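Ticket opened by: R.M.
Priority: normal
Category: complex prediction / small molecule

The reporter submitted a protein together with NDP and asked that the result be attached to this ticket for the collaborator who will pick it up next week. Submitted input follows.
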Amino acid sequence: MSRSVLVTGGNRGIGLAIALSFAEGGDKVAVTSRSGEVPAELAAYGAIAVKCDITDAGQVDAAFTEIEEKHGPVEVLVANAGITKDTLLLRMSEDDFTSVLDTNLTGAFRVVKRASAKMLRARKGRVVLISSVVGLLGSPGQANYAASKSGLVGFARSLARELGSRNITINVVAPGFVDTDMTAVLSDERRKEIVAGVPLGRYAQPAEVAAAVRFLASDEAAYITGAVVPVDGGLGMGH
Ligand code: NDP
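Result attached by the on-call engineer:
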């Protein structure tokens, strides 16, 4: 079975690992990003890259149209693209707050809404949203990011109720700290502090997040919807 899969922010980091995992499984994969580039290891599987800033509904619509022409309607959507703009509340500008919400939460709304029309017609679909352990635990200096990531949980659970009767599942994966560009900016000291709080005592590799996403998109996960699946080495236990 070769499905039409879209991974937003699939040109690097966690999104790339997710895209590779679907491509290795034989799916037709499209990745979007603001740069519109596709890394060679992913292009080797015939995956396509589409330039698309998810803060722009027009670009989202155009990207879906292009993907539908090349691969057919999106059957598996992974809303992965995300940003951070960390700072303490008193220093956080309104733009720091709203731009993170616009990318991480409203961006997911834009792509899920665009995908869902075709999924409803097909009476099947799989949606996975990439949240974060921070959305549930909170983190000083990340009020904007945490708000966007916990917002994804309410968004997903509402849609799980709204779309379930049409055989569309929508789940959330909440990674802990993962080795990517996003976490490369943290100081060695901060990294040590983080790892000290992780029962498994290390960061995750992007492929370890991808494995959970691929499972939630598989036939084996047909009865799982509205779930929040942690891939965090135990960091967020208790939620
Ligand atoms: P990276 O910074 O490595 O990659 C972010 C991706 O998002 C890039 O592909 C980037 O592409 C894309 N992106 C950002 N803004 C936009 C936009 N406006 N429109 C389209 N694409 C955009 O991050 P990670 O791989 O680390 O993170 C991926 C997801 O996982 C994010 O949602 C992040 O919040 C989440 N996460 C990450 C964790 C970590 O420890 N790394 C932990 C928990 C969650 P481009 O810049 O080319 O547009």
